[in-house]
Amino acid sequence: METADVVVIGAGANGTSTAFHLAKAGVKDVVVVEKNHLGAGATGKSGALVRMHYTNEHETRLAVESFKYFTNWSDMVGGDCGLNQIGLFVFTPPEHYADLEANVAMQKEVGAETYLLTAEDAAEIDPSVSFHDVTHVAYEPNSGYADPNATTYSFARAAMDMGVRFKLDTPVTRILTEGDRVTGVETPDGVIQTSNVVVCAGAWANKLFQPIGVDLPLEPKYARVSVFRWSFDRPEKHMTYIDRINGTWSRPTDGHSTLIGAETGVRPSDDPDHYQEAPNQDYVNHCRQQLINRFPVMRHSTMRGTWAGILMRSVDSRPVIGSVDQYEGLYCMTGDSGTSFKTSPAIGKCLSELITTGASSTVDLTPFRPSRFAEGKPWVDVHTYGSTDDEDTISR
Ligand SMILES: Cc1cc2nc3c(=O)[nH]c(=O)nc-3n(C[C@H](O)[C@H](O)[C@H](O)COP(=O)(O)OP(=O)(O)OC[C@H]3O[C@@H](n4cnc5c(N)ncnc54)[C@H](O)[C@@H]3O)c2cc1C
Fold first, then answer.
1. Tell me: the pLDDT tens digits for 77-105?
2. Which atom belonging to ligand 1 lies closest to the Cα atom of 340?
3. Which residue has its alpha carbon closest to ligand 1 atom 35?
4. Ligand 1 within 6 A of 43 CB?
5. b/e map 283-297, b = 16+ CB within 10 Å
6. Which end of the chain has fewer CB atoms within 10 angstroms, the N or the C?
7. Which of the following CATH numbers is that of domain 2-46+149-218+316-391: 3.30.470.20, 3.30.240.20, 3.50.50.60, 3.40.50.300?
8. H-state helical runs in 162-266
9. According to the model, what pLDDT value does residue 395 have?
10. For ligand 1, what atom is nearest to the CA of residue 152?
11. What is the pLDDT at residue 264?
12. 84-144+219-314 has which fold?
């Protein structure tokens, strides 16, 4: 029977990062089992914003640690993550100025390069944007976006070079347990015996957890984007933007277009195995309007494409990372809540530390623990920007 020291389920950014870091830590026999292909889940569809602006210290720490990877990719991982450091503005409602100020101060404290700018100063940096509804913005001059597929491929390539085995087109049909221990995984090709299983299965995690009685408050969610060609009179300057007033994020794509994702309120859960990969016209119209609100010059832009992906939202909209208490040897990274591409380098490192040493030293994973829900302690951020995260359905 096939054996492994650790089986990682899922080859998105988080699964491949975890496998890479386990191999780097000296774990000899790591197997990644993926039911489709590399980046087949949320990762391949990601907007892939790379920035530090979170409304809590714990995710900021993961983002700051991960930023070291993105900016030193060839040395730390190898290959190319496709990072574009074009800068980031975060727009928040003026009545939440105190929250913005507190968050930027916290982010600086944690090591992020970020500034609070007046709308006038920001307009000098990017004159294409309308600042009519803000007094201040957060500015990260070195943030931007990466290529989520290239990131995953290079994690996978580096992991393979260190001996990690990848089984693609291979679904895990069941996690095997005996008493309170994990003993292996079942696949159509047979059982892989192991005492450590890491579930990085994105929107499909419930399908693995439910048969073994693990009940986490997670729901698959649909996330959509549209692409609009820059209009004739739009200046070439284009940064990355998170707009908490219009409920959008956006960034350049293909050298001459804007990729935008817009909040449309929480939809009913979607089946990750049967979701529409193409959004409808209402969604495109909504994106176009929100885009024009922030960039008036885009009123003459042409819609050039759309796509949709599926992610996993936790009930408190924060990722769920760590040991699953019911079973010794069971770990997870799930509930990405649309925001865990940029943090995947640090998430993989922290999970590898947890598995190999019993504790994560790079960033403390305690706040992310799966048991927080059963303890009745879901995550609550202090300084938010009005809309509750409960309304968020897209990447942030
Ligand atoms: C439209 C969109 C925009 C986004 N924008 C951003 C952004 O700007 N910044 C950001 O940080 N994040 C963003 N995100 C979120 C980010 O992409 C995800 O948080 C991240 O990619 C999750 O990676 P993952 O590896 O945990 O999961 P996934 O990428 O979903 O990977 C899970 C993998 O597990 C596999 N799998 C599932 N079940 C099984 C099984 N039983 N057996 C074997 N394999 C299995 C799946 O096939 C899949 O490949 C966005 C997401 C979407 C959809």
1. 999 999 999 999 999 999 999 999 999 99
2. 19
3. 10
4. yes
5. bbebbbebbbbbbbb
6. N
7. 3.50.50.60
8. 205-209
9. 47
10. 25
11. 75
12. D-Amino Acid Oxidase; Chain A, domain 2 (3.30.9)
